[in-house]
Amino acid sequence: MNKFKFDWLILPIIGVVIVLLTWHGLAGRKVFKLTDTVTKEDLSALVIALPEGAAQWNAVAAQLKNKQIEAATATSLPPAVWTAVKDSYEEIRVGPIPDLPNVAETWISSLPYMKEPFAKRGEMDQGILRFTWYSLVLVSKGYAIALLIGVPIGFFLGLSPTFTKMFDPLIQVLRPVSPLAWLPLGLILFMRAGPEAGTYAALFTIALCGMWPTVLNTAVGVRAVPQDYLNVGRVLKLSRWKMLTKILIPATLPYMFTGFRLSLGICWLAIVAAEMLTGRPGAGGFLWQEYNALIYEHIIFSILVIGVVGLILDRLMSLIEARFKAIS
Amino acid sequence: MSNFLEISQLVKTFPTPKGPLTIVRDFDLGMKKGEFITLIGHSGCGKSTVLSMIAGLSDVTTGVIVLAGKEVVGAGPDRGVVFQAPCLLPWFTAFENVMLGIDQVYYTASKLERQQIAEYYLSLVGLADSMHKYPGELSQGMRQRCGIARAFALSPKMLLLDEPFGMLDSLTKYELQDVLLNLWQRDQKTALMVTHDVDEALYLSDRVVMMTDGPEATVGAILEVNFPRPRTRKQLLEDPEYYRLREYLLTFLNERSHHRPGQAGQPALATHH
Question: What is the ipTM of this complex?
């Protein structure tokens, strides 16, 4: 039990902490830098001019003495003091990678999207689950197309060596092509389809990229059907249809589900590319929009959400896959 | 009287990178209706190849197999096959496995009648209580019982059994041999069984066909087994003739199976005296 906890709880937590620390070490932070034209005398004059300013100056002098003060220090000053001196400072980012948002900034900036996951404040400003839902709807459509096309192709490949020799080289060439490469072609194909052209192009990309694992695994599964099962069918003189439904498909299902799981993973990969290039609202579209809006925290947030959703989808498919593996 | 099953000049060659390899050559055998014959030989000698050619699962290179006056072409449910591994489809229950064949053969019968046939044969092999279990939930022996029920339920012209008890422990094997004998006597089926178990061959068959070793395997000798039926294991074990036949079979397998008949020093056809 202790070993179990160590392996499955403590070690992953250590891993996450290491990554967070590295992130924090690399990330930038916001500081206030004294403008070159302002001297310490100017600052003290500003503060002393305040009611009870002289008394306050003694207390804050140590903190304002540096050319650069942390954001936290600034907020801890008496509000009246900070208001008085604020214009003497400029806001800059420092750190190894100044523009990379740090952990705390990402968390705070993402909170509204998690607190109201279904909010709709605008086309591109919605709760994260709402965005995820849009993406899932699009993915499920593309995935369904991928399976509907991929399974029959897989069966043809598995059953016919001629078909395999004809099309396998082509499949091997098309399989490694990235979703980003397919999308422009999809946009051209559906250019005259009207306002929904982007959706069709996205579906085209998702289906085309996602179907290969289903095609190949189905083909492998069909070839791996034990000869014994086929002999049973031959001895009984089963019709082609019965051979397919009673023997081939059930025997191939475990392989098909492995393909289905991998296909879903790839469809989910393709969704981000598709949404980015077509500007659709969704988890991937949000990411791209926030990059353009310079809200870098939300890029990291989107990446995490996309990853978590992908993981959940994969786990769900694994469960279904395991069920089918258990039967045969 | 002409034979029910007539195999003549059967040859099987397989292509190999080094040229065609002849597994079986000039295999001749005639079987009377209702006869039980076992085919015995060393493993790899080609006896299963002969069986699968009769079943139609493997193509005949040259030669003819005639069953009930018709040449055998391709597989079909008129020849019930019991495989070594029971080959039940794991996604169907024992009942559904048997029904798959029955639906094929008795397609004119009503659904109820078909179900009754399946239930009848499953009960005969002792699976009345577990017919709705999946193969994964059944023991090896129970799966093979189902395999036997599936073959008999189709009411085939003849039965082909490919080492059906090869993977079972001795006790289960004895039980299943009796199950098989019972069904065989009840249905008066012609049965050809491949085995490498001498005792099994003697207990079950009317004749034992001994095959020489491959390649180019053929019939080495045929032994008549004339014990009265129904047989019991006890009665056989008390009969001195049993030990004589057993000795004869073992001697053949140990010494003579390595030569094709007709070669120097070998009698062309051996029968016991």
Answer: 0.81
